[in-house]
Design goal:
This protein is mainly α and about 100 residues long. The chain has a single domain, classed as Cytochrome c-like domain (Cytochrome Bc1 Complex, Chain D, domain 2), CATH 1.10.760.10. It contains five helices and no strands. Helix 2 packs across helix 5 and helix 4 crosses helix 5. The longest helix is centred in the N-terminal third of the chain and has 14 residues. It is globular, with a radius of gyration of 15 Å.
C-alpha cells in the first residue's frame, strides 16, 4: 500500500504542467500534426506515433526535434527550447506507452 502511494506521488510530481501542455497542444497543431496526426492520432504515415513515446525519453525527444530523425526534419533553427518543452508537456500528457512485455 505504501508503495502504491509513493508511486502515485511520484507520478503526480512528474505530471506535465496543464498550462504548458495547452500551449504545447496549440504549437503541435501548427508544427507537428501534419505528419504525426491531429490530437496525436497517427495518420498512418511513416511518422512515429507520439502517444507511444517513452515518458523517460525527454532527452531523446529534444534531440529528435532539434536534429531530426529518419524522415523527420530538424527543427533546431525553427523552435526555441521553451517551445520544445511545451511540445514535450503536450506529448507526455497524452502518452499511452505499451505495457511491458511479459505482463
Amino acid at each position: 500500500m505504501i508503495a502504491a502511494v509513493v508511486a502515485l506521488a511520484v507520478a503526480a510530481a512528474s505530471a506535465p504542467d496543464p498550462a504548458l501542455a495547452a500551449r504545447g497542444r496549440k504549437l503541435y497543431g501548427q508544427l507537428c500534426a501534419r505528419c504525426h496526426g491531429a490530437e496525436l492520432v497517427n495518420t498512418g504515415t511513416t511518422a512515429f506515433d507520439l502517444r507511444q513515446f517513452p515518458l523517460d525519453g525527454h532527452d531523446r525527444f529534444v534531440t529528435s526535434v532539434n536534429k531530426g530523425r529518419n524522415a523527420m526534419p530538424a527543427w533546431e533553427s525553427s523552435v526555441t527550447p521553451e517551445e520544445i518543452e511545451m511540445l514535450w508537456a503536450y506529448v507526455s500528457a497524452h502518452a499511452d506507452p505499451p505495457a511491458p512485455k511479459g505482463d
